[in-house]
Amino acid sequence: MIGLLTGLVTGAGVEAAPAFAAPVASARVIARYPHNPDAFTQGLVLADGVLYESTGGYGDSSLRRVDLETGRVLERVDLPARWFGEGITEWRDELIQLTWRAGVGVRYARATLEPRARFAIQGEGWGLTHDGRQWIMSDGSAELRFLDPVDGREQRRVRVMDGDQPVRHLNELEFIDGEVWANVWYRDHLVRIDPADGRVLGYVDLSHLWPDDRQRRHEQVLNGIAVERETGHLLVTGKRWPWLFRIEVTEALAD
Question: Which domains are assigned to the chain?
Answer without folding.
Answer: 24-252 (2.120.10.30)
